[in-house]
């Protein structure tokens, strides 16, 4: 017997509409949500990682990092980036924990999609730019590091790598963080060349990314990514309404060039570890 006869025509129609709606929604995967960037140590797709180490463990239900990466993130000079936190004497633990957390967020978070950009560098194809870091996370980072010492404002570039680990370049002096980075905003934005943006929004607002969170209540950054992905798309759509002629609209509807380039990119990358900072 046909389904329509068994259920009655009205119900069958309603069921048909529901199936159609589900079909229309389900297969569309938002490319900005639940993704891993294409960088040095990231997995290709996020997924559960039961064994994530200490400060990275909040991401264990859904992570872009492996257990190995999470444990390396806690080491002083890990194989991840060969980066030396202690370039101006030993970095105090209360300061270092923020750098470890920052590494965990960078390596493990599947919620940075709205801020992933192409990177012009030999060791990663993508980077993050302007991730809005919650004000308290930035302020606490600055507060706990204000008396630690460093010789550089941008930790991505300009080190002396002659010995295989980063040392202060000639002519630079070790000074307190509070002098190198007068405000929390200076620290969070400048240290990794604008990977972060200091957000005026507070933790829990759903409008900024938290470096620290309690996994018992889920990962708060998933909703934040969703909000910014939606905002990105709706502002792009508004721009089109305003000015773009029909042809320009068609061009913009294509997938972004970064997606088109990805399959070609492996050829461009030399293997081996590169002596640059993390993030
Ligand atoms: C992680 O993997 C690297 C490369 O295979 C290895 O050298 C390192 O010892 C591993 N670290 C841990 C903590 O297992």
TrEMBL record:
- To which species is this protein native? Hirundo rustica rustica
Designated name of the protein: Folate receptor-like domain-containing protein
Q: Which family does it belong to?
A: Belongs to the folate receptor family.
- Report the GO terms under cellular component: external side of plasma membrane
Record bears the keyword Membrane: no
Where does the UniProt annotation place the signal sequence?
1-16
Does Electron transport show up as a keyword for this record? no
As recorded in UniProt, coiled-coil segments are none
Domain Folate receptor-like positions? 35-210
Keyword terms, alphabetized: Disulfide bond, Signal
Q: Name one GO molecular function term.
A: signaling receptor activity
């Amino acid at each position: 017997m046909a389904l329509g006869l068994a259920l009655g025509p009205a119900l069958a129609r309603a069921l048909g509409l529901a199936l159609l709606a589900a079909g229309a929604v389900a297969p569309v995967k938002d490319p900005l949500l639940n993704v891993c960037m294409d960088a040095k140590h990231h997995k290709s797709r996020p997924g559960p990682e039961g064994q994530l180490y200490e400060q990275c463990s909040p991401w264990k239900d859904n992570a872009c990092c492996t257990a190995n990466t999470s444990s390396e993130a806690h080491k002083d000079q890990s194989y991840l980036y060969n980066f030396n936190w202690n370039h101006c004497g030993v970095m105090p633990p209360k300061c270092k924990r923020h750098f470890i957390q920052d590494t965990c967020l960078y390596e493990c978070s599947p919620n940075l999609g709205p801020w992933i950009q192409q990177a012009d560098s030999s060791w990663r194809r993508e980077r993050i730019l302007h991730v809005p870091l919650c004000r308290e996370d930035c302020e606490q980072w600055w507060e706990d590091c204000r008396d630690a010492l460093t010789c550089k404002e941008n930790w991505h570039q300009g080190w002396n790598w002659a010995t295989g680990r980063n040392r202060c370049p000639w002519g630079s002096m070790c000074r307190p963080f509070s002098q190198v980075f007068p405000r929390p905003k200076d620290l969070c934005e400048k240290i990794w060349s604008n990977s972060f943006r200091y957000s005026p929004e507070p933790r829990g607002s759903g409008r900024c990314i938290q470096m620290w969170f309690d996994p018992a209540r889920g990962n708060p950054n998933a909703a934040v990514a969703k909000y910014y992905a939606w905002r990105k798309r709706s502002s792009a759509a508004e721009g089109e309404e305003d000015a773009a002629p029909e042809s320009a609209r068609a061009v913009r509807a294509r997938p972004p060039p970064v997606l088109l380039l990805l399959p070609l990119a492996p050829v461009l990358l030399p293997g081996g570890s590169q002596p640059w900072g993390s993030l």
